[in-house]
Amino acid sequence: MSRRDLIDPDVREPLDLLQQAIPGGFNTIPDIVERRAAVAQLLSALEVPPNPSVATEDRTVPGPEGAPDIRVRIYRPVDATGTLPGIYFIHGGGMILGNIEEEDPVASAICEHVDAVVVSVEYRLAPENPHPAPVEDCYAGLVWMAAHATELGFDPERLAVYGGSAGGGLTIATVLLARDRGGPPIHFQMPIYPMIDDRNETPSSHEITDIGLWDRDGNIEAWKWYLGDGKPDQYAAPSRCEDLSGLPPTFIDVGTVDLFRDEDIAFAQRLMQAGVPTELHVNPGAYHAAEVFAPQSPLAERIWTRRYEALRRGLA
Questions:
Q1: What pLDDT was estimated at residue 125?
Q2: CATH architecture of the domain formed by 3-314
């Protein structure tokens, strides 16, 4: 039995269409600029209309010291009243792909369903900007958001950080920086199938080789580009962090057919052992970002219902 046979039938079709459009998946496009364009073209075909329940505003805010300014997109429910919770949103893309626009539908949906102010950050990407540029951008954006809580209309005592895949790894790394630098207090974090281990030694990192979406070769390449000439530390690869104490309550989910499965399960166990309240869900039959590629599927509905509920509960 191949790993593809383990995929939930409800989410197989988008993966098959991806393979037809780009045999072997995105990682077969060697030029990173061309790869980003191919991803953007594929996502634009989904044609998600703007969310009428959410108002957005783009701003440019200070980046890390000595680095360029960064762009953020602010989301607020149009019928919101009073002070809301806040969610700092970090997009995915393996540290080498992605932007605010491509995850706009996700950030907007979270804003609407959780009834929160959401700030999405545009961080520099590898290989042009290897570690620590991306996480330092994310941290700078978080510091800006927390400092402008009153203006943005959210309670700084109810601030969460959310991100998927590379955004999940950056979520944990950004929260680690906040802990270690005495930065903004984080009430809750939700790293979704986070990319957190550069070593590629787990069983699942050897199993996922032919799905066509974030397979082993692509992950190895992305880590190589992200680390550049530098050595991995806990802010690049949070699995390397030795002390996880003092982190906020955490929600992690990952699929059984996801390369990140085992590193995420192991990290959740270590959080629990460090005394961090942790909720872990392993979704049977889900490949990496299955709920994004098959948003109308029953699997996606179960995943999102659970996430929204956990965010509302974590920010209560």
A1: 98
A2: 3-Layer(aba) Sandwich (3.40)
